[in-house]
Amino acid sequence: MTQDRLILRRVGIDTYHENVAYLHRDCILYRVEGFQALSKIEICSNSNRIVALLNVVDDPNIVGVNELGLSEQAFDQFGVAEASEIRVKHPEPAHSMDSVRRKIDGERLNEQDYFDIAHDIVENRYSKMEMSAFLVAASQNNMDRDEILFHTKAMLASGDRLNWQESLVADKHCIGGIPGNRTTMIVVPIVAAHGMLIPKTSSRAITSPAGTADTMEMLANVELEPQKLLEIVRKERGCLAWGGTARLAPVDDILISVERPLGIDSQGQMVASILSKKLAAGSTHLLIDIPVGPSSKVRHMRSALALRKLFEYVADRLNLHVEVVITDGRQPIGRGIGPALEARDVIQVLENNPNAPADLRQKALQLAGRVLEFDPDVRGGQGYAIARDILDSGRAIAKMEAIIETQGRINARDLSPGKLSFEIKADVSGTVTDIDNLQMARIARRAGAPIDKRAGVDLHKKLGDTVKSGEALYTVYAEFPSDFQFAQDLCNQNCGYRIGLANELPKSFVAF
Fold first, then answer.
1. In the beta sheet, which residues pair with residue 88?
2. Which residues of 51-67 are buried (b: 16+ CB within 10 A; e: fewer)?
3. Alpha carbons within 13 A on the beta-carbon side of 471
4. Catalytic-labelled residue, pool 58, 144, 160, 265
5. Which residues are registered as beta bridge partners of 472?
6. Residues paired with residue 172 on neighbouring β-strands, in sequence order
7. Mean pLDDT for all residues in the chain
8. Domains of the chain, CATH where assigned
9. Which of 66, 185, 275, 500 is 20 to 30 Å apart from 473, CA to CA?
10. Over the stretch 292-349, which tens digit does the pLDDT of each residue have?
């Protein structure tokens, strides 16, 4: 081995969407090249090369003086066998940072600027600090609608794009913020049973108590390779899978990993994120659900209407047919919050169980009806009745079971909640006038969801329900004593419910 080469070592550390390299402080190259901790380095082996953030270590158990370690993310991306000889050098700077600095100064960026930024991000030339600067600049110095279009196109071009070879590929997306809103798992089997193509790839939870993929994982395998996904969709006309196995708009995944911890959720970034992912997944027709309520992501009708116009403007220029519905976001949908409890609600609706939550059933039917009306053979206004017939006849549950079987059934379907529980009771009599979506999500997460799939919250009272002092409002479930105590402490600080008079109920803005 020559002095300018090192031996590659895999370091078992998950750095989540960030390439990290490890050099020993006594490594000759570290001293000669003048590398610094937290600077970027370029690692090369023949035609394989990546850029990574440098960590300097003193422990030879992590890397030796003649070794370079790569985190799991970086090692998988590099694609070179462990113990291979590699070279390390200073990388070229990310020239697109000039565009980011201009955006920080409040300038408007052009289409090439956004493509350059996306290219450098997907090539791992940005540190998380530099991506944070871009996200904050784009959020504070608002992107105009053409900039959002440029950003969407750039993210779409950063990865692969599925082509289903059909003229109508349907999808449905909710912008989020409403616990228990698991309508997708009802809409997909209804639409697929009708015969429309609806290949649904969903995310796992990042800051919520459950994502669609987390909940579906209670019933079936959701981690499917692209070829397997294709086979399932061709056979069943639909799927409910995790989108992480396909390389669809990967810049979006990287930005989300930085955006969520910062609590940034700008409208421009949201529109670009959703539409780039849907276009990459091969969608031609998309229904977007914007819930509006005091503790939802969108809190005012005027904001919802402005967001709808943004979605329609960008989608129209990318040849994606979009319809936007504004729905009731004043409270959680269904009863369960957390993967097991939400899966229970979904199965109850699909099985037409008399105990199924009526609000989840009704909203899912309304959304499914609107998706079915994308079909040119379905007249406007007929979709709801067709969706209801598919659900009531048992065709929806039959299709769901077929999708589950094809994706890989979870053998023991046990949707029982966690073994530890406590009730939160009303301290006064009256009417439930407010349920804080954010607080209920926090409580479910504090109880362990979504990592502990049986953890969560089961609601017994909803908006407008009358309640007597001492009556249970909801039950919290946990798997471990520490989570149980964390959730109990949070509930004692703020239970998330307000009891008052019936005339104090917040107004509902619904535009189906």
1. 43
2. bbbbbbbeeeebbeebb
3. 16
4. 265
5. 425
6. 287
7. 93
8. 5-89 (2.40.40.20), 97-157 (1.20.970.10), 170-248+257-407 (3.40.1030.10), 420-504 (3.90.1170.30)
9. 185
10. 999 999 999 999 999 999 999 999 999 999 999 999 999 999 999 999 999 999 999 9
H/E element, 322:
strand 321-328
Record the pTM: 0.90
Angle at CA of residue 203, ends 414 and 257, nearest 5° = 125
Residue 177, both tokens: 């913020």
3-state helix, strand, coil in the chain (%, to 5): 40, 20, 40
CA distance 510 to 54: 51
Collect all residues with Cβ–Cβ distance below 8 Å to 424 and sequence separation of at least 6: 472, 473, 474, 475, 476, 491, 495, 497
- Whole-Å CA distances, 26 to 30, 36, 38, 161, 264: 7, 13, 17, 45, 40
Q: What are phi and psi of 413, to 5 degrees?
A: -80, 90
Judged on CB neighbours under 10 Å (0-12, 13-18, 19+), 256 is middle
Residue 214 annotated as catalytic: no
Q: Which residue has the tokens 């479910």?
A: 444
Question: Which amino acid is residue 216, in one-letter code?
Answer: M
